[in-house]
């Protein structure tokens, strides 16, 4: 039996649409079973499928469900998000090209999608989640990613949400293949975790030693041709301390002479860098990396939303978000909490 990725690679439009239909029907007919399998990632006894063997058999066939010794479990996550279904890899999937599960930052960016943009670029689309939401507000949405696996998930999620004819992923390294194009809005959830040098980490989260490598390259590529009177909505981690966040230096350097204003919103209580860094304890360069970061006075990690908006002159502002709780932002969304809170 092949994997879900094998299914996506080797099947074209109709088989994907058929499976998307089966997933949607299964969700509507038995949401509890669906949640147990795909949201809470439980192993479910075969007997629970007696009323929907069509669902079980078709999804085993595609590698979406795996049957072993009388129990069935999911090989991917599929989460209900504001009436859409979004498939991603499992949070436990350790392959470097794994598809980013839904994190609180994604929920933040969904709320940031502007209402009247003619064209939206979703850079680092991953599962395609932001493009799916953007496609309801904008006639032209372009999801891009450097990861082929992401483009396959994006196309599948587009079909699963009825926008397969509107969203077409493109492979590109940041903006490199998009020269000459123009967008009203760029949504950017690029990799932003600080990672010790030489450590092999997830493509979706490896932001280099200070977390800002990709964001900095992306900002260097921004120019009037790409986004003349448009705006950028981005999320990031910034190392820093009580007085300063290092992303300010990068943004001022890259955009200080431009016609943009920058509005930074601190979305959660800063995390102690020593706490965050523990996840990399096994990395050979862990100690020197941690020591030099702390010696540079960077003890905190800030979770921020960044709005880059057209302005006659450059400006920089920082505010703290006090009105909204984004969850424990270093973890995937807490689905128990989310599904109970959802209207
Ligand atoms: C944090 S994930 C965001 C996924 C999704 N947009 C979301 O909000 O859930 C970052 C994505 O950026 C992609 N990425 C990493 N490096 C890239 C590059 N150089 N150019 C384009 N995309 C890149 C990764 O493959 C990954 O899908």
Any overview of this molecule?
By secondary structure, the protein is of the alpha/beta class. It has two domains: 4-75, no CATH class; 89-321, Rossmann fold, CATH 3.40.50.150. It is 34% helix and 21% strand. The strands form three sheets. Strands 6, 7, 8, 9, 10, 11, 12, 13 and 14 form a nine-stranded mixed beta sheet that branches. A three-stranded antiparallel beta sheet has the order 1-3-2. The longest helix is centred in the N-terminal third of the chain and has 17 residues, at 13-29. The radius of gyration is 21 Å and the shape is globular. The two termini are 39 Å apart. The chain binds S-adenosylmethionine (SAM). S-adenosylmethionine is lined by residues 100, 106, 109, 124-127, 129-130, 145-147, 150, 173-174, 189-191, 203-205, 214.
CATH superfamily of the largest domain: Vaccinia Virus protein VP39
Task: Count all strands and give the number.
Answer: 14
> What is the chains' assembly state?
single chain
Number of domains as seen in the coordinates = 2
Give the overall shape, derived from the CA principal axes.
globular
Secondary-structure element pattern, one letter each: HHHEHEEEEHEHEHEEHHEHEEHHEEH
Main sheet characteristics = 9 strands, mixed
Kindly state the mean pLDDT as a whole number?
93
N-to-C span: 39 Å
